[in-house]
Design brief:
This protein is of the alpha+beta class. The chain has one domain: 2-Layer Sandwich (Heat Shock Protein 90), CATH 3.30.565. The chain is built from three helices and four strands. Strands 1-2-4-3 form a four-stranded antiparallel beta sheet, covered by helices on one side. Strand 1 and strand 2 form a beta hairpin. The chain is globular.
Amino acid sequence: MPELRRFARRAARQWAVPEDASDTLALVSGELVTNAVLHSGSADVTQLIVFDGVAVSVEVADSGRWLVRDANRSTTQDAGAEFGRGLDLVRACTSWFTLHPSAVGTRAVARISVREPGARQ
């Protein structure tokens, strides 16, 4: 997934997105792609990044099936692990987030505010 984070940063740099929003975009992109790879069972994952002058949106889609955990991780190997909070992290650092799981794939879309609406560029 590092290559997709680098891609997100390059796109943000081309659009002159401020560094803090660029960092958030890279983090969100990485979390959404990692989530799709680890939890969808899909052979393919796509990412779309769009900048509208006010916010950057990132959409990650797969053709797998959303796998819901019945319980929290509780194995010895998982103790202290730095995972399992990806979507909570995405929700916390974006201005808008939605997840659309279905039988034919999952689509996650997040929006990261870059500039206040109406602000001069």
